[in-house]
Amino acid sequence: MYYDHFGLNQPPFRITPDQDFFYSGGNRGAILDALVYAVTNGEGIIKIVGEVGTGKTMLCRALENRLPDTIDIIYLPNPSLPRDEILYAIADELGLTHLADQKSTQIIREMQNHLIEKHAQGRQVVVFIDEAQAMPLDTLEEVRLLSNLETGSSKLLQIVLFGQPEFDQHINQPQIRQLKERITHSFYLHPFTRKEVDDYLIHRLRAAGYRGPHIFSQGAIRLIFKASQGLIRRVNILADKSLLAAFSTNTHGVTVKQVKAAIRDSSYTRQPASALKQLAIALFLSASVLAIALWAFRERPSSAPQPESKPVAATQSKPPSFAATPAEQAPTQGQSEPAQAQLPPPEKTPSLQITPSLAHPAHSSEENSAPLPNALQARLDTSSVHLKKQPGTHLTIQLMTVPPETVEIELERIQAQAKLVPEQIFTYPTTVKNKPAISISTGTFSSTLEARAALVKLPDPILKNLPMLRTFKGIQDQIGKK
User: Fold this and answer.
1) 189-248 pLDDT, tens per residue?
2) Is 340 inside any structural domain?
């Protein structure tokens, strides 16, 4: 979407592991060289540990590309298999499909014979196991036994384990201490520093074809580093959303403003542990005080004479509650049923940011199933006729996407702020996170230049929602899928 705007040939911050974007900084290049040496020398088990999003999969793909052609690679992305099934999985990858119904001892014997043949041909086999922290202990023990397959001088099967930090705790258990002893090389992928985030961003932009000055300001880079905590996947997501926000406002640089919008959407901010601890203590103390107050109130004798009490069945008694609601309290004299609790009116639902990945409306299950109001349905029907008549290459400005119940409020606000008449605005149904929503758009433009000129003239309150350009074909296709 924003590639032409920034002079890019392809998306620079995709989270899929593309080797054209491998970044050797942050010690990744040095670790890759060490891995190539360790695998080709075929000694012991190799372990690579890193937090979620530190680039383990990218490093695995880079290692595959760097290894010589004489090495056959088996990749197991899902190691959470029982002990026997991981043997079947590896045998299947080796082409030994006839062993599906054999016992594990027979599978290992056949596997060893096959690997000896490969070794005689000058070939080597390496198994990459991703998400190793998910492996059951029995499966880990089977992996250790597979590392015993060897000739008099060489290992027949090299094993490389990629895992999260929990994997280190996993292998510290006494029952698999023998596996830990077989690990001859351990590598750790640490999060990026602020300087490494800076270098990483411009490296990815250059790899995508960008040739201008750095798009991200130093303030934006500091904020991305702080919010991402140096984790590569988060850096990619925040950078991509920040570029989209800059494009939506027709600017060619990313500042703190765009990064803040990306952070709000990504929910990477979190309270520090000390704040959460204080909150938990405060809640506990509040609950305790309330419980004591309720107990004292219920135990306090009344000064007025009480009528003779009647025995009540034990099953009707109710223990004191920490937070009794009016509906739980006993009815007052003269009332046959408890009074219903009066709930405060719901707060106005805030408008949502409009980029596809920056909109996260919240609906209840009742809202999802409720029929649309007649006025809104009529508006959608009128807009549908208009949309079908438009050439697919023409563009419109999508102003925002909101829950159905707030459409009329937002339409009134838009008309007042942008001085638009109802005929200049149209709506169409969509979904956000599998929940119904309504998109609001305005204008019909035959060229991108014309549409951008109209977009930048929108008043600031509307520009804060990050409006974006959309083709009518894209909208028509989206509606057609519903």
Assistant:
1) 999 999 999 999 999 999 999 988 999 999 999 999 999 999 999 999 999 999 999 998
2) no
CA dihedral 32, 36, 37, 42 (to 10 degrees): 140
The answer to whether residues 157 and 182 touch, using CB atoms and an 8 Å cutoff, is no
Amino acid at 426: F
Q: How many CB atoms lie within 10 A of CB 109?
A: 13
DSSP-derived secondary structure for 311-324: ---GGG-----TT-
Q: Which of 156, 189, 222 is the last residue of a domain?
A: 189
Element (H, E) at 396: strand 395-402
CA atoms within 13 A on the CB side of 277: 3
Whether this prediction's pTM lies above 0.90 is answered by no
Could you give the CA distance from residue 387 to residue 427 in angstroms, rounded to a whole number? 9
User: What is the Cα–Cα distance from 156 to 383, expressed in whole angstroms?
Assistant: 67
- Kindly state whether residue 229 falls inside one of the protein's structural domains: yes
Cα–Cα dist 189/31, whole Å: 9
Domain extent, residue 98, equals 27-189
Q: Is residue 257 part of a domain?
A: yes
State residue 1's pLDDT score.
Answer: 65
CB 294 within 8 A of CB 320: yes
pLDDT, tens digit (0-9, with 9 covering 90-100), for 10-67: 999 999 889 999 999 999 999 999 999 999 887 779 999 999 999 999 999 999 999 9
Interatomic CA distance for residues 140 and 133, integer angstroms: 10
Structure tokens at 152: 């008099």
In this structure, what DSSP letter does residue 45 have?
E
Residue type at position 295: W
Residue 73 contacts by C-beta under 8 Å, 6 or more apart in sequence?
Answer: 64, 67, 126, 128
